[in-house]
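Purpose: get a first structural picture of the assembly so the mutagenesis plan has something to point at.
Setup: two entries, given in the order below. No constraints added.
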Amino acid sequence: MTTSPLIAVTLVATALLSMPARAQDHNGHDGQPAVAPGAQSSPPVKADLHAGHSPSVVNPKPAMDHNMMVHGDLKHGSANDTASSTGVSPGPMMETTQPVEAGIGPSRAADAIWGADAMFDSRKSLRESHGDFPVFWFQGDRLEAQIRGGHNGYLWDFQGYYGGPTSRLWFKSEGEGGFGKALEDAEVQALYSRAIAPFWDFQLGVRQDVAGDKTTHAVIGVQGLAPYMFEVDAAMFVSHRGDVTARVEAELDQRITRRLILQPRAEVNLSAQNVPRLGIGAGIDSVEAGVRLRYEITREFAPYLGVEQSWRVGRSADFARGSGEDPSVTNYVVGVRFWF
Amino acid sequence: MNTSLTRRGILAGLGAGATLAAVPAWAQGHSMRRHNGPPIRVGFDEVSGKIIDLAVASGRRTVQGRSGHGIAVNGSVPGPLIRLREGQNVRLNVTNHLNEDTSIHWHGLLVPFQYDGVPGVSFPGIKPHKTFTYDFPIRQSGTYWYHSHSHLQEQSGHYGPLIIEPAGAEPVSYDRDYILLLSEFTPLHPHFIMSRLRTGEGYFNDKLSSWTDKYPMSGAERRMWAEMRMLPTDIADVSAPTYTYLANGRGAEEGLEYLFRRGERIRLRVINGSAMTFFNLRIPGLPMTVIAADGQNVKPVEVDELQIATAETYDIIIEPGKADAYAIVAESMDRSGMALAMLATVPGAKASVPPLREAPLLTMGDMGMNHGPAASDMAADHNGHAGMDHGGGADANAAKSHSMDGMSMRDKSLLPPDVEIGPGLDMVSMAPVDKMGDPGIGLRDVKHRVLNYRMLSALEPNQDTREPSRLLEIHLTGNMERYMWSFDGRMFSSVDDIPIRFAWNERVRVKLVNNTMMAHPIHLHGMFFELVNGESAMHQPRKNVVVVQPGASAQFDLTANEPGDWAFHCHLLYHMHGGMMQTVTVVGPKVAT
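Result (structure tokens, whole complex):
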């Protein structure tokens, strides 16, 4: 059984890493215009072409009718004329501080005309709508039926937030169970989420397990977008009994077409100690690796098919076998991903 | 022919297409889903004079069978053409029939700051069912526009053209004077769009790369983009099919038409009144001579195509040849769709419309990597030379040497200390070179002449040619994933009481450094600035919008001679609301010592 985690990791790695490399073979030329033709020599000085030559056309005191007639005179010529570069200002080279005469303090010119009271609401409204304002987002990343021999079940994995671009209230919920049976696992999390880097949020909050063994955890984690567009969610949990566990999830969207998307996904659960009452062994507890193929009917609504393999590992596998479960399970899944 | 035909010309343009608009909604075969209010007219009529009444009300917009909530000025989208004359005074009575606040900002107009129309900066806004009177003298001439600065109303149709005739003679002659106002329609509510931009990255991107796409990217490049967690297809945050692109309020199938007679010279005033779209404008078979930018005259320059950024205006002269019709094609920068109009000698005459060209991709240069062969001056490209030879070995090598190994996409040491480094900053441009000569994403290697900022030169000499006494560097920053946008790493919500300050009559050079992979059209209210584009100070072109290309920098000179508080922001509507905005305060002469 010890080989299982290795295989798992290998599978995950293969699934995830092979993706971006693909896709390339459809065009024969390989020297792409990868490097911009759009670049520009830096000094803005020399008035290269089109600048103020062709005096026959340019007439500050315009005489009607004449100045536009002769296209031959219009300058779309070569860049050889440097005459107009005289008089070009080099400008100050270094950024300097503003002069005292520019004044200090907030901008309040309109208060003198319309009154500070009249301006107050509009200033507030402007501030609250330009930059930091809250939005609401809810995502059902996985809502699926899991089909395995004889034991069909369901799973949900939702998350969302309310808040501004750098400071949010984040909530998560996931759970699973067998059809016609009680919930096996279910949890909800409420987190304060704060941007700590362009692509990363730091999250702090609580998790409540609402099925099976009702446990409360403190949560500390990071969530964001890793290089190569991996969506990563990593969190550590400390239960009210003092047990320390952790979970790392990663997903990657690979667009086959604009609407057909292959999503490899991996999850690893870790534990700092044996928790026999929950069937968790110290070290790597379990590993999941799956791939889902979804079709975006709209950007917000996409049904999918997929397959997922999960392994209980090490002592956890022993616990599983001890309670008559198979430590290695393959699920075929059908579900829907949605958000709004 | 002379300019007296002007007005008739415009009206002719407005009239075309009216027949289609007259077909009732239910007869056009689209959903009868209810939206509050009466149907909104397509196209615009004209108002002028010393006292002008405008009414803002909501209704139902229908474009090519799709219907959605709309906000109209005087019952139409776009709102009425406001025609003024330099030197006059105008009182504009704006009545708000909405159930929320509204406002009108006069884009590009030199006005006392309290009439600039930005709620929370210049005035309190216009409350529901109240009338607000704007009152100011007209101190300039040219092609401008107006739009709401409240909520996201601009996306819903709250905009219109504004033209000011000069007190003296026009610098060029023409027989017809037409307006082409480009914008978008979407059946979605703009609040929904804003929310999706924040929560569903790439939600509106219909061109995401996939295993089966046809993009000319190598596997290494694709992995590099994935490693950076960025999208090479992110040219426009919102585009077709979410948007239907509009010419004077009409979709491409709804037949906007401008009539002409052979031998006539036509002035076309192109206004980009869209919320989020850059357009590539061309008229196959006809060159276009640009005579004004953002309302200000420039020395005539002939091109075959130009990219017009959100909120820019360009006036062009065209001289149709022998054909019965010419297509005016305004393709969105990401090539997801187009707005379309016909120049026709007889009603109904049609020219063939070129198909959308292949969608462009972002490149290494858009990340601010500007070394290697690609760094040579773009200007060489659009002068009939064959364009730069990419696809060759040199570029392939450059791509390899540019692989991300050992390179930081977010090298904080490249930033000055006044930039806040936080989650709202996902990239730092490695070498933000000046790209004034860049014709724009997707037009860098076309084989014909494309406008760029270096080709613009002010026709009338600038008043103030002093050497700038101060350099102010502002970094454009963002986080695409979180949809945060900002100046110097701080969104408006955290700097609403920290303005950018200028002393009275101070001459400042402002350097904008773009640390994002999107082109930002940066707009300053209340003043024109002069692009530092290689022209002499006397002829640096005056503008009120400057596009800062991805990963690049751009500079302008400014004379701070309009006292008060002014909005300064990215004119992509959802970028502004995402935080890329700050107040500019110009201290008045009385306060200065």
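Confidence is low (pLDDT under 50) at residues 1-86 of chain A.
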